[in-house]
Structures
1.
Amino acid sequence: MNLVHGGLQLVFYVLAIIAFALEAWALIDATRRPADAFPAANKQTKKLWLIILGVAVFFGLLAVVGQVTTLGIFAIAAFVAAVIYLADVRPAVKEYGSGDGRRMGPYGPW
């Protein structure tokens, strides 16, 4: 019985690490997008997404280093927020460039 319990803990720990990596990727990606791209794509503002994803990374980190059972619902909500950003918001704002100052033409940056 103890072996099964230890195996499940390992599985949940690995899932928490994967979720944290996904949340961190979403936050880093959101910081790289220009602020004007979010309203232009009919999405919430960049500031709001940075707050949401920052909180998601915080709870994801707590899930990795702390007790997953006490933060379970918050860790799940953090993962869902990151998935919503990556699946819905990121493709919409990606069309507007990465915000690095270069202008995009029909065939690439110029």
2.
Amino acid sequence: MIENGRISVLQMAILVYPTIIATAILLLPAITGDQAKQDMWLSPIWASAAGFLAVFLAIRLNNRFPDMTIIQYSEVIVGKFLGKAIGLLFILFLAHNCGVTLREYGEFVKGNFLEDTPLAVIIGSMIFICALAVRGGIEVMARSAQVFVPVVTVLFIVVLLLLIPDITPGNVQPVFKDGIMPSLKGATVAAGWFLEFFVIAFMLPFLRNRKKSAKWSIITVVAVIITMVVTNLVTLFIFGALTPTFTYPVMEAARYISIAEFIQHMESVVMAIWVGGIFIKISVLLYITVLSTAQWVRLSDYRPIVFPYAFIIGVLGHWSAENVQELEKFLKETFPIYALLFLALLPTMLLVTAAARGLRSQNTDNRTSSDASAGKDRSK
């Protein structure tokens, strides 16, 4: 196979969690707050249906084609010509999504910390570090995530706990003031983030044992739901109706922290959370983009194209938007439709077609039996 590394289901979950949540914790409260008002905390709950759908599609397709990604089995399902066209469109989507994520990172760092640093330097340094991780393979990325994610999670919980003295729970009332529709409108935006759970389709072929992949995928979706709901609630408790007026509500909330005039200026902690999480997210997106391209052109190794792709994505990130307002508009209005097309409708079409034609990889039975025997060997 083009990737010889193998990861566990737990490592997959640790990789996927920051891939979804890294950008959501800073940008989503303002975007959902604009649509859902005081019901913004409900939007991630409704939007989670998209996450469960993405997990279902990825796992069902992997059950039929265990050693393939969507780039490979699309050719099996709909034929070589149409499959190649679908693969190319998917690669372009992945590359653009990675570029947009890189630009989100650049805008945040430049706008809040390094105002005099050129955006190209901020973007270039991050994509270079991510490219080094991607060249190491999926195992290196998984081990990096095992180091970063627990630290980032603890820091995030600490920030939330330190905000407790400043919260005003009454800001959440009245619930359902204008009915359920505002929270559902906010959910359409959050659904775009949840649909990114389809990235597990690129990790499932490289699991040591796929037996518990569905269980850990669902656990990860639930973890993302809890994180988004808590983040939206805390920002709502602090800012109330003013939440949508901030580009990064969590960052603004961190500036409120002041305990005994000793624990202050927690913005640096938020910065650490963001950089750690975004490093994992960009690495994962760059990895699946490079892997998909290598599979599409049938290369024996994806590593030689990592740095050229990193340069291209860096340029895409620089050109993806003129400013943070335009970027936020894209995430609010265009990205949900964009994600729905590539991460839900397209995989659904492929799954339905494969089921209707009775298509299944010849290696399915062999892979299943090898997974079972591997599980027995580890239990001895």
3.
Amino acid sequence: MQDKEEERSLINVERQLNKEGYTEDFRVTEGRLHTLNNERNKSYAPSEVTIVDFYRFEGESDPDDMSILYALETTDGVRGTISSAYGTYGDSDALEFLKQVEDLGKNLSKKNK
């Protein structure tokens, strides 16, 4: 039986998302979301991206050591993830981009069953 904290580790969540088809790694530069896969080599505006889900992780010993992992899908069907630290260590480009996506209403709400 897995420990609850272990289940929610960044690595395990990434592994599960990968199984669900979120295989691309993204980064944000110059206000656009870019694929890290050199063969695909695409970039997207906030209007071309949907936040499918997100996961927050807190550091064990330091509450300031927090990060967030986003599961994203683009208008042409590319699915992947991007992660960023919170606060002082946060990737301001990525966080600003994702805020724009949210402001456009491009985040899917999870339906509770």
4.
Amino acid sequence: MKTHASDVGAARAHQASSLASFVYLSTSQRQLVRAKAKQWIAWRRAHPTLHTAVGIGLLAFLFAFDAYALLELPRQLPFDLATRSGIVFAALTTGFLHGFLVCSIVTYSVHEGAAHDLIVVGNGPVTRVLRFVANNACRFFLADPEYYAGSHFQHHRWLGTEQDGSFTNHVRLRRLLLAIVPMAPVFSHSDFFPWRPQEHTRSRKISAVLTKLHLAVFFAAMAWRFGVLYALVSLLLVGTWISFVLDRVRESTEHLGMPLERVHGTRDFGLGLWGLLLGGGPWGQPCHFSHHLEPALPWYHQLALHFYLHRILTPEQKRQFFLRPVVGFPALLVRLARGGMR
């Protein structure tokens, strides 16, 4: 993903004109958050086996559920699979679910795993294998964990600057639209994908090969069970498209218009409809402000921190860092469209 100087300049102009009264967390609030995070980190270190079992079990469940959705769910849907219209409706349903699950798997594996190494705890021979599997599972869906880990480190260290590995405090509308047209990652016309490099590196090529093999296997199995039309619509036309639409829309809005500061420069979508949909589930970064406050916390403790913040933030701070239920995210999209067209 490329950082454009014009986007950084637009974000700086917004900060100078609109964020003068922004209310940052106080020193006492930061100390409360740090103390709570230390308790949770101590718990994780005291229960490494349980933590790893949850992490690997979740990843296995997501892969299994995805296979079920593509290969078995059509038989459970109220559509006549003997007709073309029934096949198309079934394909649209399973394709959307597949796209959501792909977004979930990629975000979990590449962010929680490759970038922060939080899925598996320990250094024994078994845990090393599990860590490799967890951190590279995203390769089956075109993501490059090696590239993402490096750029995400820059994102945390240099959030809101030209060195930010995935700068999204200001996003041009045209740039977002070019990234969410069907098959955008395949044609490489967009520089707005943080989970892979623009260059065709060895690591990116490995991910491309594994993705093609994964698609070929599932396409063949789906076509054998329900026909080529079903496989084409569900897997290739809808599923792959929905997955990166959710990913790009989430990342284009979670930092949008926030301060150019590495801790306070993002917001929590929360555990409502929008946070869970765009993040691919509760493990998919619906609480991004919590994550930037304490990057060492795994996803389930980020959720706990989100609820803890509800207790210690002032009403004005809550309005800044949390979305209003239901209408908050559409309002954010309108803000993106207006600001991104200027």
